[in-house]
C-alpha cells in the first residue's frame, strides 16, 4: 500500500465546489474530486451558533502536493476562513500511480 492524501473542504454551493475542483484538476494539484450531496453543518462563528447547508468535496492528491492544493483552495474559496482538512491514506499501488500520473505533467 502507498500513501496519498485526501483533502476535504466544505463549500456553500455545489457550483463553487465544481469550480474549484476543476481548477485543482486543471492545474494538476488533484487527480480526482468527489463532490457529495448537501449536508447540514452546525458551527460556532463569531460567537454565534450557526446552521448552514453545505457541500463537501474530497480531493485526491499526493502527499507532496497536499499543502499546495490547500493553499490554492483557500485562495479560490469564498469563505473568510475555509476549513481545509488533509490526511494521508493508504491505497494500492495502481491507484497511487494513477494519482501520481494525473498530478504530474
UniProtKB/TrEMBL annotation:
One of its GO terms (molecular function) is copper ion binding. Coiled coil: none annotated. It comes from the Bacteria. One of its GO terms (biological process) is response to metal ion. Pfam families: CutA1 (PF03091). Belongs to the CutA family. This is Uncharacterized protein involved in tolerance to divalent cations. It comes from Hephaestia caeni.
